[in-house]
């Protein structure tokens, strides 16, 4: 996941310790496996934006660290809480292509993505059932992450094939 330009390449695992500690705070317990319906609640969205800001500060406050990207921060949130899709380039291309949400992480985008899941909940839940039968339980927002990531990936692949 680390890219050549990432400040994390020059760090050991201890760089993540302050982030892990804050993710374990009781106040973020509500974020574990949020559903799309939970993301329509301003309190939950504000909690996500709060933890995002604190993750950014946790990295910035360490020696020789830069501001982490929204890609890194949202991958951390997806990988721990499962509360939000990871805003990487493929997901952003996917949501732009489908005209689902604004491509910048914020309240508006989070709620737009949640509404998309809710509008298509029957189809997404059918897919979750199939996955769950194989012994893997995917949170709703991980499924949404995979969906838009695949659209973005396919668009990128098609673009490369044309070149």
Describe, in plain words, how this protein is organized in 3D.
58% of the residues lie in helices and 0% in strands. By secondary structure, it is mostly helical. The radius of gyration is 16 Å and the shape is globular. The protein starts with 16 loop residues before the first helix and ends with a helix.
Unreliable stretches covering 5 or more consecutive residues: none
In terms of quaternary structure, what is this?
Answer: single chain
The percent range for strand residues is under 5%
Fraction of residues in H or I helices? 55-70%
* Count of helix runs: 7
The helix-strand sequence is HHHHHHH
Spatial shape = globular
Tell me the count of domains.
1
Coarse structural class = mainly alpha
C-alpha end-to-end distance: 26 Å
Estimate the mean pLDDT confidence: 90
Biggest sheet descriptor: none
Q: What is the number of E strands?
A: 0
Radius of gyration in whole Å, from Cα? 16 Å
Question: What's the structural blueprint in terms of helices and strands?
Answer:
Elements: H1 17-23, H2 42-60, H3 70-80, H4 89-97, H5 107-119, H6 121-133, H7 140-162
Helix pairs in contact: 1-2, 2-3, 4-7
Tags for this entry?
single chain, 163 residues, 7 helices, 58% helix, 0% strand, globular
Care to give the gist of this entry?
The chain is built from seven helices and no strands.
